[in-house]
Write a structure and sequence with these properties.
The complex is a heterodimer of chains A (336) and B (258). Chain A has 336 residues and is α/β, with parallel strands linked by helices. Chain A has 10 helices and 8 strands. Chain B is mainly alpha-helical. The longest helix of chain B has 40 residues, at 39-78. The chains are: A alpha/beta (336), B mainly alpha (258).
Chain lengths: 336, 258
């Protein structure tokens, strides 16, 4: 009985292990075919699918992001390919991205390769149709190659004719090859060119030396190239600029002052006030001058009278009748 | 004339045996749905067929994966297609080599065992005794064994595939410094449901054929103990033939469906 139970347990382990391995295999295959993730259907229209099959990979930036879900022949030149692409990958695709059917390596399966769109393009959404890029087929390449071959054959035939004519001495090139005097002229020309190039080389060397000497500090260019001098010059220029700015302000202020004076003067001239009369009426100015002279003499007389009053008051201080009052006044002043 | 008669006799025997086998299968389908169900015997047979064959199947599978990769690797390297080795080995093992090799091994071990066991019971009249005692020997001996082989062979094939891929990866790891995850990633990238599902479905037919032919040969065993050896031997030979026919038909059908 116990043996039977052990056998059943072992059998259970065996069965579960087998089923788990099978399920793991199924899951791995499904995962590789992007069957279990969040997928979005995107379409593209081709005129030739070049052997693309349902289940083939869809690649974006070199990463397998989905599979071909369905291929539908709409008419003789329109084939709609439905691609199931991961949502995470679709987020980065633009509506102007192009879908091309290419081969996965030299002998690999066909794949849909989605090429990058422009950064300004809109984001691809579910059900969008991407523009397709037609691939150059082998038969088209061979056709082009055939035309190229025919052209090459015609060119070779023409070249053969030209070569024959040259070897027979016909035409300018033939004459060049046949005529010995031209050969001598060409040799002399080459010799002259060689001499000219030698002289040019010497001239260039001298020019090079001259340019090198300019770098020394004792020359004007060297002085200018010296960074310290340049800095000083810059600073001086800045100071001059500041000073000229200040000078400009002063001139502006002076101009405004002169304008004010002018306006004041013109106002004085135009008005009928005292100053205008003083400047215009000579009789009045003479009267004023005389009045000032009299006023001056009056002031001198007042000054001398004041001195006399002071002397009189000083004498009164010592009079017996007023002496007490003056003392009382002095005490009050001290108290204050 | 004698040769013609011999051929005629052989063809007649073959057709007769095929007919008997068909009736035997029909009786199985009748009995399998009828009560009583021999669950304990079914579990015992599952254990004998599944668990006890696991070591043999695993070792064989491991060696097949190992040898297959070792043999293929130099040629693939010559072609510059070394990177395709995991895909090639994976598809080969899952689609064909794993199921057929496991089935042939099981035909040898289990088919002959069933044929010999039931045959010896027949010649020693144990089956007759069971009938006399009221037990249905067909249900107890045949139905349980055919069901057990039908259910256990697919599991053995799955395990054999896994072990064979492990053996292949071991060679790739040693010779090509290929990591476990990269190897199995390459294998499963190249595999499709159209590879795994038909190859798994056909293993149920393989298991059924192994059980059916083994039980048929044993149940109809004649001529004493010498007949037991003949039954065991013919069970293996005929099962192998049937396995290849089933394999061929399954490939045709799966090509039509997928």
């Amino acid at each position: 009985m116990e043996k039977s139970t052990q056998q059943n347990i072992k059998l259970g382990v065996f069965v579960i292990t087998g089923i788990l391995l099978f399920m793991a295999g199924m899951w791995m295959i499904g995962d590789k075919q992007h069957l279990f993730g969040n997928m979005v259907s995107v379409y593209s229209v081709f005129s030739n699918t070049n052997g693309l099959r349902e289940g083939n990979n869809v690649r974006y930036s070199g990463i397998n992001v989905g599979t071909v879900r369905n291929i539908q022949l709409v008419d003789d030149t329109t084939i709609v390919v439905e691609m199931s692409i991961q949502t995470d990958a679709v987020k980065h695709m633009k509506t102007d991205a192009k879908a091309a059917i290419t081969s996965d390596g030299l002998v690999g399966n066909m794949i849909v390769n989605i090429l990058h769109g422009s950064p300004k393009g809109l984001r691809v959404e579910k059900g969008d149709t991407l523009p397709s890029l037609s691939r150059v087929r082998t038969d088209e390449m061979l056709n082009t190659l055939s035309v190229t071959n025919e052209n090459a054959a015609l060119l070779t035939a023409e070249l053969l004719k030209i070569t024959r004519q040259i070897s027979e001495g016909k035409g300018v090139v033939g004459a060049l090859l046949r005529d010995t005097s031209i050969t001598l002229d060409v040799k002399a020309t080459i010799s002259q060119i060689r001499e000219a190039s030698r002289k040019a080389s010497v001239t260039l060397q001298r020019l090079d030396q001259t340019i090198a000497s300019l770098d020394q500090k004792n020359t004007v260019i060297g002085f200018l190239k010296d960074t310290l001098t340049t800095n000083k010059l810059k600073k001086t220029t800045q100071n001059v600029q500041v000073a000229s700015g200040q000078l400009r302000d002063v001139i502006t202020q002076l101009e405004s002052t002169v304008k004010n004076v002018n306006s004041t003067v013109s106002e004085i001239r135009d008005s009928k006030g005292v100053l205008h009369q003083l400047t215009k009426d000579q009789k009045m100015s003479g009267d004023v001058r005389q009045a000032i002279t009299e006023l001056d003499s009056t002031l001198i007389q007042l000054h001398s009278a004041g001195i006399r009053v002071n002397e009189t008051l000083e004498a009164l201080r010592y009079h017996w009748l007023l002496k007490g009052a003056f003392k009382k006044m002095e005490k009050e002043k001290v108290k204050e | 004339m004698i040769l013609f008669q011999s051929w005629r006799q052989n063809i007649s025997d073959f057709l007769e045996e095929t007919g008997e086998l068909a009736f035997f299968a029909g009786r199985f389908f009748r009995e399998v749905t009828r009560r009583p169900f021999e669950f304990k015997e079914l579990l015992r047979q599952c254990y004998n067929i599944g668990n006890r064959s696991l070591l043999l199947v695993a070792v064989t599978g491991f060696i097949i994966g190992l040898v297959f990769t070792l043999q293929s690797r130099p040629k693939m390297m010559e072609l510059g297609a070394e990177a395709w080795l995991p895909s090639m080995v994976g598809i080969s093992i899952v689609r064909e080599i794993g199921p057929i090799i496991t089935a042939l091994i099981c035909a040898g071990r289990i088919g002959s065992g069933i044929g010999a066991e039931i045959g010896s019971m027949r010649v020693t009249e144990q089956i007759d005794a069971m009938e006399v005692s009221g037990t249905n020997p067909f249900k107890y001996l045949v139905v349980t064994r055919i069901l057990a082989t039908t259910l256990m062979i697919p599991l053995l094939v799955v395990m054999s595939d896994f072990v064979a891929l492990m053996g292949s990866w071991l060679v790739e790891s040693i010779k090509g410094d290929v990591s476990f995850f990269y190897y199995f990633d390459e294998v499963f990238v190249s595999l499709d449901f159209a590879d795994l599902i038909p190859s798994t479905v056909k293993t149920f037919f393989f298991g059924f054929a192994i059980g059916l032919v083994g039980c048929f040969k044993g149940y109809n065993c004649k001529h004493g103990t010498a007949g037991v050896g003949v039954a065991a031997n013919s069970a293996v030979v005929e099962t192998s033939m049937v396995l290849f026919i089933i394999d061929f038909v399954s490939v045709l059908v799966s090509d039509l469906i997928f």
